Amino acid sequence: MIRIGIVGIGFMGMIHYLAARKLKGARVEAICSRDEKKLAGDWRSIQGNFGPRGEQMDLSGLRKYRDLKDLLADPNIDLIDVCNPTHLHPETAIKALAAGKHVVVEKAIALEAKDADAMVAAAKKAKRLLMVAHVLPFFPEFAFAAEAIRSGRHGKLIGGHFKRVISKPDWSAEIGDASKTGGPAIDLHIHDTHFIGLVAGVPSQVFSTGIVSGGAVDYLTTSYLYGAGGPAITCSSGAVAMKGRPFVHGYEIYLEKATLVYESGTCPLTVLTADGKSEQPKLAGGDDATAAFTLELQAAVDGVTAGKEPDLLSGQLARDALVLCHKECESVKTGKAVAVR
After folding, report:
1. Structure confidence at residue 181 (pLDDT)
2. Order of strands across the sheet with 79-82?
3. For residue 70, is it within any domain?
4. What is the pLDDT of residues 312-328, one digit of tens each?
């Protein structure tokens, strides 16, 4: 049984806690928060842009810690689940690794590449797993697309366009603070750079245009430049939509022998083939808002059990996704293509 301690009970901490209740071979045994109300189970102030709102929780079976060092000193915790604000991820993860704990950290891995590098190095030194919780590949539509591309069953990837647009976040003061999250071009768009890196690899250059507000990039459209032979991939992402359209993501992916189309809320996953036929594959997950997070955490638990980093939770892949976001922001601000490698 893998015993989990969650650090940070904000929206994502709550989602991870709810998702972990369905894990096999693992359970949450402790939480760590500086908020006395949350330690007492009053999560009614918690809300996000999807899933349930917080409620009064029965935490009678959990150990509660106000200080991280006390959680890390608990010998009955195997895996630290880091869900505090992004600017705190490096310090929290490195301390946990040094304490001999395995770590899964909510995306983004960090705000700066140097901190991500330090986290990856700390995991190697401690001989513990550093896993980064990028949930997108565990959503059924994106899991389907990743498998289709990586398996090559419809031929090679020719090109595609990805989209992820939200209205300005107002459910949390911290989520709107770019100094803590990096702004939409980091906190939101990193889902896309991670997925693009997973299925297409890291491009040689990026060229981005976008909107800058208060020094942070709020919205951008990027061309990922892989050189001769492609693939030809673009993405638009940011926080510019009106409240009537709080969230949308999707893709149109072109393979040699099929086109995959998906947009949340408007177009279910559809596979178009050369013979003119179309199919809407049956996907698992249904309306459970936490199902993908359960799969994500199950992968982390299975990784700890096997002693091997799951490829979808790779710390290096998460680090590369962060670097890609920063290169795109540089391109927006300079108006020039920026080399990635």
Report:
1. 84
2. 63-65, 26-32, 2-7, 79-82, 102-106, 130-133
3. yes
4. 999 999 999 999 999 99
Q: What are the two backbone dihedrals, phi and then psi, of residue 36, each rounded to the nearest 5 degrees? A: -65, -35
Beta bridge partners of 4: 28, 79
Question: For residue 67, how many other CB atoms are within 10 A of its CB?
Answer: 10
Summarize pLDDT for 171-189 with one digit per residue, the tens. Answer: 555 555 777 788 999 999 9
- Using CA atoms, how far apart are residues 247 and 44, in angstroms rounded to an integer? 23
Q: Which residues contact 67 (CB under 8 A, 6 or more apart)?
A: 32
d(CA 275, CA 259): 12
The CATH number of whichever domain residue 192 belongs to comes to 3.30.360.10
List the domain range (segments joined by +) for residue 186: 137-285+321-339
State the DSSP code for 308.
S
pLDDT of residue 169: 76
- Do 240 and 165 contact (CB within 8 A), yes or no? yes
| Beta strand segments in 76-173, E | 79-82, 102-106, 130-133, 157-167
* Residue 293 scores a pLDDT above 60: yes
The residue with tokens 């594959």 is 281
Say yes or no: 65 and 77 in one domain: yes
In terms of domains, do 44 and 89 share one?
Answer: yes
> Quick one: pLDDT band at residue 48, thresholds 50, 70, 90?
confident
Q: What is the mean pLDDT of residues 279-303?
A: 91
Asked if 166 and 246 count as a contact pair (C-beta separation under 8 A), the reply is yes
| Angle subtended at Cα 228 by Cα 223 and Cα 231, rounded to the nearest 5 degrees | 50
Average pLDDT over the chain reads 95
Using CA atoms in the order 225, 229, 231, 233, what is the torsion angle rounded to 10 degrees? 40
User: Across 83-147, where does the E strand assignment appear?
Assistant: 102-106, 130-133
Domain of 102, CATH number, reads: 3.40.50.720
In angstroms, the CA 126 to CA 100 distance is 7
| 112/255 Cα distance (integer angstroms) | 34
